[in-house]
Design a protein that fits this description.
The chain has 87 residues and is an alpha+beta fold. The chain has one domain. The chain is 28% helix and 28% strand. It has two helices and five strands. β3 and β4 form a beta hairpin. α1 packs antiparallel against α2.
């Protein structure tokens, strides 16, 4: 599901307003039902650069070729979000 510039702005706003990563995940799932949203431990994403850092979470964009998942910097190729809680 491609994400528009407006979607990305909204995602960052939600991430900065959410009290925690679980709330952000729930809000993202409700807003973008076609987008897979996964919450992981921050250690799982060590060495990766988030697309966005918000108060609630580091946000990573994931692309999928129909079989394998990979990081993407291209919002138009986003098929999912990985949210890692900020400590």
């Amino acid at each position: 599901m491609p994400l528009s510039a407006e979607d990305l702005d909204t995602l960052v706003e939600l991430g900065n307003a959410a009290p925690d990563v679980a709330t952000l995940a729930a809000e993202a799932r409700a807003r973008w039902s076609g987008l897979r949203v996964t919450v992981v431990d921050a250690l799982d994403m060590r060495g990766e650069t988030p697309a966005f850092a918000t108060a609630a979470a580091n946000i990573f964009l994931m692309g999928c070729d129909g079989h394998c998942w990979s990081m993407t910097a291209n919002p138009a190729a986003a098929a999912g979000l990985v949210l890692a809680a900020r400590s």
